Amino acid sequence: MSFRPGAALLSSVILIASCGGAAAPPTAAPTSAATASPTAVPTVAPTPTPTPVPAPTSAPTPSPTPAPTPKATPALTPTPTPSPRRTIINIGNTPPPAASATPVSTGSAAEALLISYIPEALRESCGRDRQIYSTELTTITCGPDEFPVTYTLFGAARDMQAAYNQDLPRARIRPVANGTCEEANFEATYKVDGNVAGRLACRDRVGKGGFTYKEMEWTNDQLLVLGFISNRIKTWDEMIDFWSNEAGPYVPD
């Protein structure tokens, strides 16, 4: 016999009715809603109070510091550099003393005498020079700065000759018997109008900086004057021509 779920339920109903009892209403099974836990009221999260963000404090703008006004630097007036060796002599209108083989004293009288021996073309450019020789009376330098000539006056022929001899070792090349000025190896007497007038040396030497200087030095036996030229620019021909025609010294007219 097979089990039929509908037949069993019908038998139960008939049995209950026959017993005289009212059939109890079927108890409804609790719904899931009845048994469900009460729905929790959602807790509303408090709205966070926004923390006010402080407005960015702008850095104070520094007031520009005015640049100091530069003080005007006064223009410097260049001081002329005096010649290290010469002081201009005020010749004025004082006539020079008469020429003499024995110069008079020292100082202004000796200077005036020496200037009287200088060619007129050079005379106004002459200036007092430093003392070069211990026995000299006075020394002057004349001519332009690029071509000066120095004259020294002595009181005795021996002093003049000693000064001349003292300078001979300056020569880079020793003088020879048949030397010439162009070869810078000349030392001998020279003549004026056929007469011996003194001694002349032509030489060269190496100075400071490695420059070679041409030098001419001569004596005038009558006037007791020692003349000297040193130059590194002029040629020998230029120097010889100047010495022969313009340098002097001469006996004043």
What does this structure look like?
The protein has helices at residues 5-18, 32-35, 108-116, 120-123, 157-167, 236-247, and strands at residues 87-88, 127-128, 136-142, 149-154, 186-192, 195-206, 212-220, 225-231. The longest helix has 14 residues, at 5-18. It has a domain at 87-171 and 219-247. The chain has 6 helices and 8 strands, in the order ααβααβββαββββα. The protein has an 8-stranded antiparallel β-sheet with strand order 1-2-3-4-8-7-6-5. The chain is α+β, with helices and mostly antiparallel strands and 253 residues long.
Q: In summary, what is this structure?
A:
With 253 residues, the chain is α+β, with helices and mostly antiparallel strands.
Question: Keyphrases for this structure?
Answer:
253 residues, alpha+beta, eight-stranded antiparallel sheet, 8 strands, 21% helix, 21% strand, globular, disordered N terminus
User: Nearest-angstrom radius of gyration?
Assistant: 65 Å
Largest sheet: 8 strands, antiparallel
How would the global form be characterised? globular
What structural class do you assign from the helix and strand content?
A: alpha+beta
Global mean pLDDT: 73
Show unreliable segments. 1-44, 53-62, 72-106
Helix share bin: 10-25%
SSE layout and pairing:
Elements: H1 5-18, H2 32-35, E1 87-88, H3 108-116, H4 120-123, E2 127-128, E3 136-142, E4 149-154, H5 157-167, E5 186-192, E6 195-206, E7 212-220, E8 225-231, H6 236-247
